[in-house]
Amino acid sequence: MLVINERRIDAPVARVWELLTGDFGDISRWAGAVSASSFVRDRPETLVGGTRSCTIVGLGELREHVTECDPSTLRLSYDISGMPFPVRVASNDWQIRSCPEWTVVTSHMEFALTPIVGALMAPILRRQMRKAVDRLLEEMAYFVETGTVHPRKTTSRLVEQPAASRA
Questions:
Q1: Percentage helix, strand, coil, to 5, in the chain?
Q2: Taking CA 163 as the corner, what is the angle to CA 157 and CA 167, rounded to the nearest 5 degrees?
Q3: 147-155: Cβ within 8 A, 24+ apart
Q4: Are 105 and 96 in contact (CB under 8 A)?
Q5: pLDDT at 158 exceeding the cut of 70
């Protein structure tokens, strides 16, 4: 199953590439659904071979192992482990292209699903993943364009805190 999302960001391509790759281990800083993130080991110089751990609200921990990071083609790819049933294998391929006055970011997420249950759930999973990545791209654009986190990120942090710590 392939899910493709695309978003125009009103910022230079270098700023978008830096957020996607330079801050790869710190996606939780700006992504609303990611409550914690870090490199599993030290950050590799080229990112290739590095693994990021992400704690996703309502989903748990995922691991994203970088398989490609090419600044000349503005492409970042990684395999995702820890996805819930019925996803057997998942990957994401980010591509960035510069337009005269903005940047276009495209996510190509590919999922291999279990044969029977996966086939039945594919339409629902496709909608859920498209919506989740649309939100992520919206938050990325907001952060790059304004330098501040999307209001949804602030809200998601409040939801995760125990009631006693919010008093």
A1: 35, 35, 25
A2: 95
A3: 149/29, 149/30, 150/30, 150/32, 152/32, 153/30, 153/31, 153/32, 155/32
A4: yes
A5: no
How is residue 18 written in tokens? 């830096």
Closest CA to 99 of 30, 3, 19, 6: 6
Query: What are the structural domain ranges in the chain?
Result: 2-156
CATH H superfamily, domain 2-156: START domain (3.30.530.20)
Distance CA 51, CA 42 (A): 9
How long is the chain?
Answer: 167
Question: How far from chain centre, in Å, is Cα 27?
Answer: 8
Q: What is the pLDDT of residues 76-128, one digit of tens each?
A: 999 999 999 999 999 999 999 998 889 999 999 999 999 999 999 999 999 99
> Whole-angstrom distance between the N-terminal and C-terminal Cα of the chain?
44
Single pTM value for the model: 0.89
d(CA 28, CA 31): 5
What residue has token string 């649309």?
134
